[in-house]
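FAQ
Q: What does a multi-component entry look like?
A: The components come first, one per line:
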Amino acid sequence: MSPFDHLHLEIPESNKKRIVIIGGGFGGIQLVKSLRKSNYQIVLLDRHNYHTFQPLLYQVATAGLEPDSIAGALRQLFEKHQDFYFRMARVTGVDPERKVIKTLIGELDYDLLVIANGSKTNYFGDEEMYKRTFPMKQIPQALDLRSHMLQNFEQTVLATEHEEKNRLTNFVIVGGGPTGVEVAGALGELKKHVLPKDYPDIDFDIMKLHLVDAGPRLLAGMSEKSSEKAEKYLSAFDVDVRLNTMLKSYDGEDVTLNDGTIIPAKTVIWAAGVTGNIMDGLPKDSIKGGRIIVNEFSEVKGLQDVYAIGDIAGMYSDEFPKGHPMVAPVAIQQAINVANNLKRANKQKGPKAFKYRDKGSMATIGRNKAVVDLPKFHFGGLFAWMVWMFVHLMSIVGFRNRLVILTNWVWNYMTYDRGTRLIIRTFVRNKNYKPGDTL
Amino acid sequence: MSPFDHLHLEIPESNKKRIVIIGGGFGGIQLVKSLRKSNYQIVLLDRHNYHTFQPLLYQVATAGLEPDSIAGALRQLFEKHQDFYFRMARVTGVDPERKVIKTLIGELDYDLLVIANGSKTNYFGDEEMYKRTFPMKQIPQALDLRSHMLQNFEQTVLATEHEEKNRLTNFVIVGGGPTGVEVAGALGELKKHVLPKDYPDIDFDIMKLHLVDAGPRLLAGMSEKSSEKAEKYLSAFDVDVRLNTMLKSYDGEDVTLNDGTIIPAKTVIWAAGVTGNIMDGLPKDSIKGGRIIVNEFSEVKGLQDVYAIGDIAGMYSDEFPKGHPMVAPVAIQQAINVANNLKRANKQKGPKAFKYRDKGSMATIGRNKAVVDLPKFHFGGLFAWMVWMFVHLMSIVGFRNRLVILTNWVWNYMTYDRGTRLIIRTFVRNKNYKPGDTL
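Then the predicted structure of the entire assembly, as tokens:
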């Protein structure tokens, strides 16, 4: 008997066609919004009851923001929508023949299915890294990292051996993409401005930050100019940036790099990449490169009435041989395109192909420092940092979140302080994570 | 080998006498403040790295506030103090002969010891209640309750049987003191104003709130007029108040009361009382009624240089045959008295006896409603509610907390909304609690 035997995934019948959307990420919530006035019944499924604004997740991990600032309860987002149903459920698979999706609490039939369940941390099959490093994809993970970090500083005060103090305060960040760079910058700022006030008994010269990337430059998705600037900014925080370098092994105490270097560190943050959340029941030849193959209308290869958008969707083309970048704007634009094509179909019009409009990308590296790439223009420094803050503040869902984040940012900026240095979760390393689990 | 073998509780030697304070609650932090300019080295120990403003804990449990609003990192509070040391450590016992306290990370010797480690939820030895009900003393407990509650509503949407929906949405609150009354009021408000918007598919008439108290009236520590008002306000929220009633048993599904009534409920909140955190090593005849017996100077009976203040201290007298009420103002005033007596001793002056100044008490019951008892004056309603808010806002530590709480309260008031409806902790009922544990 399952603990969910008394529960059933039942949705009231409607005279409208039913669209089931899997995942309340950037793609999923945009699709719900764009279909608000359409002629469909909409069912949104997610295993969390909230949307996560992932670009600011690193600020939760580094004690700058509380989770409620960067998350929005999904029911609340759509409480004014008609014939809309949110259900908190973990989708385990799909049966395209019978047109049903399978969850832990039963099946649900669909007329149209949109798979928007995003990506999960990619350990490239390395069980050791999976067990011993901290991922940065979900809010509970960010809170675990924060708790772990603060507990390590408390232990540093109590440690007597120099090597042990070193091990407790060192951080190795794997992956030089935006997440890795932003975490490294935020930790650098904590080291410089915040922690010495809290821990006068610790000599923070022993705390070393290492950022390791397998490629030849940081922020590989951005311009070379921005890569250089990011590296320069990180150096100013004493971050040891090691390019063309990989982790060979990690036993929870010491990191061994492929060049033989050994770094003692109790904390390794794994930001080395993501891979699609592939669910059961999809045809084998519809999967490639960890993503679901879709055509230019986001239709899944070989299936009827099934779409995929965002990180999970591999829209392979000559222009994007590896598919589009796994970032929020792609998911949002694909959601809008799918919604428009559904509306066109209702008017007996043919679908329009998806065309990605790259509006630019950016990353922040601590106080007053960021890099911004616009399509034809790259810049950094204080102005980039202000642009970064403005864009993120405006992109986040809900006026209340904006207000709380702004208050926190102004407070942190004025006081060189962080408000949320509480060790609240009793940390047990990855106790809730099982291999293959995305949480 | 213990996991803490590499850690040692070592404090730098000083030419000043060392005061060790156990517990960073209201008493402990007041004592540190009051002794700032005294001629002592001060060591503060707590198993958490933060002070909890317990009067607002119920708002964390009911999704009104985030933990960072009602907690202050202890290091941060005292970062400007000289010869002050905070150590995160769980104190297990004391050896008054050798003048040392024992912790999981070793021993520490003291010249003076102040025991201010407060109280824990009192289950009166009932293992069943301990395992199956939710306590309300610590922030992690409040977060567990919040998560549990929100998950139950998600399940209610999926439940098909009427009885099951009933069981998932019912709440039984045990204990009609301030915590029980305030939780009941906050849940009543959620039911009336917040939840129906989020869960249009749930008929909230099935949600029943029951408040059970063994005594003849609510808020036994307050005036009869306030008791009556509180009961009236709760009735307006459809709270079923059952006085002179006790829980007979609870199997996790159904509550059985001593009058034979059976209430189906997945959630029972245990606010029936607290008892002192008695540590090992104290003389047996210094313990009475779950508290440490102290004289009018807060000195522990039969010991030299050991004080106890706050909930843990039983200062039994003709006026207070059961000791003082276990509330923050007593702890704060006793801390001030101990600090003053230590300063007097340095000037070769004798100690002054403690005299409790009861400044009044209050409780809030949802929007616009509270009861306030001043020594010679009782009032309720909107003005009491405003006084309640003002006093709590002014009492909380730190300007940032005040700002965040005020923002949240104004937001909640204006929008009939709650900002923090996220299910973030994977809830496993009481998995971390062991009998005798205070967490």
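Q: Is there any commentary attached?
A: Sometimes. For this entry: Chain B has a mean pLDDT of 90.
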